[in-house]
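Reminder to self: tokens first, then the designed residues, so the page reads top to bottom the way the pipeline ran.
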């Protein structure tokens, strides 16, 4: 069965894991998912992986966006998003695979975005549920931000994990910072998202639409889970003050610009 998404570009960020990318693209193909276009944004991978990407282009028909040097995930998302020409973007990192539930769930997400122009993002995967969820429909909830919620996870309505978004995302929320730690890049965008009054939906069964797969040959180079979920007292204290500092700093910066 074919599932056509003519208004959506599949944007994949890649770095030194061409085998994982091939598996991801093959899985979408086996599910019968056809997007208006596919953009693969590479962050300065080693020659052996770049050569594999060039070979994969002929097989899967995607646009390859490269850079001569590694500039971090933020820059990699920026230049990939710049190449998108459709109204919607499905963003996925190369180490995720969609499950059989993806096509129908994705159709629901697109319907919600078309019906409600105020929605900016629909999230399909997470390590944890957002702490404040308002039931929506068809297995989705709307993420609600409350500054007084004691959980630091309240700041993460936005996340770099697989999600659908409008392709004017960078125009509304700003570009990702480049050449910075991946956690700082993600958190900066999360704060911008909140300050610009972004709205998002969250799939309640958040580990059933995508699976994160890292092999011994191509292990993950990212470490978000330890920062977000660690119960180490020092990490807890650092996280508590840092997240609130960034929130207040962004609030002051925005106030000065008015």
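Designed residues (258 positions):
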């Amino acid at each position: 069965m074919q599932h056509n998404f003519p208004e959506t570009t599949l944007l994949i960020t890649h770095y030194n894991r061409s085998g994982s990318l091939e598996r991801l693209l093959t899985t979408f193909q086996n599910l019968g998912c056809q997007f208006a276009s596919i953009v693969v944004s590479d962050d300065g991978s080693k020659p052996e992986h770049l050569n594999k990407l060039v070979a994969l282009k002929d097989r899967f028909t995607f646009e390859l966006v490269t850079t001569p040097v590694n500039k971090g995930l933020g820059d990699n998302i920026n230049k990939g998003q710049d190449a998108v020409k459709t109204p919607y973007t499905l963003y996925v990192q190369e180490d995720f695979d969609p499950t059989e539930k993806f096509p129908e769930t994705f159709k629901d997400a697109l319907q919600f975005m078309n019906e409600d122009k105020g929605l900016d993002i629909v999230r399909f995967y997470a390590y944890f549920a957002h702490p404040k969820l308002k039931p929506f429909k068809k297995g989705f909830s709307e993420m609600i931000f409350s500054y007084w919620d004691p959980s630091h996870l309240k700041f993460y309505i936005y996340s770099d994990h697989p999600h659908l978004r409008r392709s004017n995302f960078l125009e509304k929320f700003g570009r990702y910072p480049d050449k910075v730690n991946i956690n700082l890049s993600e958190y900066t965008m999360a704060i911008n998202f909140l300050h610009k009054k972004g709205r998002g939906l969250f799939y309640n069964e958040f580990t059933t639409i995508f699976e994160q797969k890292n092999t011994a040959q191509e292990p993950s180079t990212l470490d978000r889970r330890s920062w977000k979920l660690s119960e180490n007292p020092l990490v807890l204290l650092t996280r508590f003050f840092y997240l609130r500092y960034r929130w207040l700093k962004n609030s002051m910066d925005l106030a000065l610009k008015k």
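Confidence is low (pLDDT under 50) at residues 232-239.
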